[in-house]
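Listing S7. Sequence submitted for prediction.
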Amino acid sequence: MQTPCILVCSIDIATAYCFGCGRTREEIGAWMGYSDEERHRIMAVLPDRLATVERRPRRETRRQRLARERGMA
């Protein structure tokens, strides 16, 4: 199952979007129950949402670290 989660789970108070993935709490909680179509529809708007969060996480995410260690980043 495709997921936008990057293991940075913190909600921006101003926008109500997760700093890591851009989803709302409701979307995160319901993710497993969504159809592939619903997940793709949500994932399509996540880049625009992430552009509106007030700050970015300062630490390296687990996914970024693993990619860096594998020489992919």
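Caption to Listing S7: primary sequence and predicted structure tokens for the chain studied. The CA atoms of residues 24 and 50 lie 11 Å apart. The first helix runs from residue 25 to 30.
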